Amino acid sequence: MSKKNYYIGVDLGGSYTKIGLVNRFGKIIAKTVLTTNRYKRNQLIDEIVFSVKSFCLKKKIKTKDISGIGVGLPGLIDSRKGIVRYLVNIPGWKNVHMKRLLESKLKIKTFLDNDENVMTLGELHYGAGKNVKNLVCITLGTGVGGGIVINGKLYRGTDLVAGEIGHIPISESGPKCNCGGTGCIESYIGNRYLRKKLKRDLKKQKSLVKNLIKKSNYRLSLKLVDKAAKMGDRFAIEFWKDVGIKLGIMLTGVINFINPERIIIGGGVANAGKFLFGPLGMTINKRAMKIQRKSVKIVKARLGEDAGVIGAAVLAKERDIV
Ligand SMILES: [Zn+2]
């Protein structure tokens, strides 16, 4: 049997860069975590190279036993050519031929894609989407992103930029969005907006959330709203209900249109649990078309903080970029 049973998964994020040695069962067997902004671009690439070499030493394998490197990045990626066009929150990454750089230093085939696609691949192969053919992944964070799997394969779109689920509009007017659009779902349920809304609404209403904020040295966090909802706080329950309904309206469109078997929801906001998923499910029950509604399951993402590394390893394993 070939010894080439290992993959490298790199999750290059705005805050942390995680590098993992992953076996053929999708299990991380060695991992390094770096603080992204402590390194300049080329230094960071060198650190990735260094980590791969140290994994090999530590696990007593050769670099040629690694059959591929996958990298997920937060931005515009030309996955076909292996070029980073632009990263949203990390300066110094314009038109970087990262595939070529890593391949020349390590002699291992390298594949790049944006972080949402990579996470979707991870959930599809080893997480909440295992054995599912048609699914949509959505991550609720500062941005709202997504990935689409059709017939077991990632759908990237004509210009490789499909999956911008956060920029599906849910209203004719509404807030202007960074993407140039108006009334995008992201401007109603993205973290930045939710924090602003929380601040504004708390001024007018009584809520346990206020006490919890005071207790945590006036640091406003959406986690506190989860906590208050669990304690039965009306304001907090209503807060997540509103998010659930808006997300439900948008996903109704996705469900009617794509007829997926599963919708996987990840990101911090998904931790609101039943306070979010309850109203979300009810909205979809009420509004989606019957046949589509019946077959779709809405579930929480399963891979958690390792999703990026595992997904990147899947990208290297699948090599389905054409
Ligand atoms: Zn938008």
Structure commentary:
With 322 residues, the chain is an alpha/beta fold. It has eleven helices and twelve strands. Strands 3-2-1-4-7 form a five-stranded mixed β-sheet. A five-stranded mixed β-sheet has the order 10-9-8-11-12. It has a two-stranded antiparallel ribbon with strand order 5-6. Strand 5 and strand 6 form a beta hairpin. Helix 3 crosses helix 11 (307-318). The mean pLDDT is 94. Residues 167, 177, 179, 181, 184, 186 line the site of zinc ion. Zinc ion is lined by residues 167, 177, 179, 181, 184, 186.
Strand content: 15-25%
Pattern of helices and strands:
EEEHEEEHEHEEEHHHHHEHHEH
Question: What hetero molecules are bound to the protein chains?
Answer: zinc ion
Number of helices: 11
Task: Quote the distance from N terminus to C terminus.
Answer: 28 Å
Q: Tell how many strands the DSSP assignment holds.
A: 12
- Lateral strand order in the biggest sheet: 3-2-1-4-7
The secondary-structure class comes to alpha/beta
The largest pleated sheet is described as:
5 strands, mixed
**In which range does the helix fraction lie?**
40-55%
Low-confidence stretches: none
Mean pLDDT: 94
The value of Rg in angstroms is: 21 Å
Instruction: Using the alpha-carbon principal axes, give the shape.
Output: globular
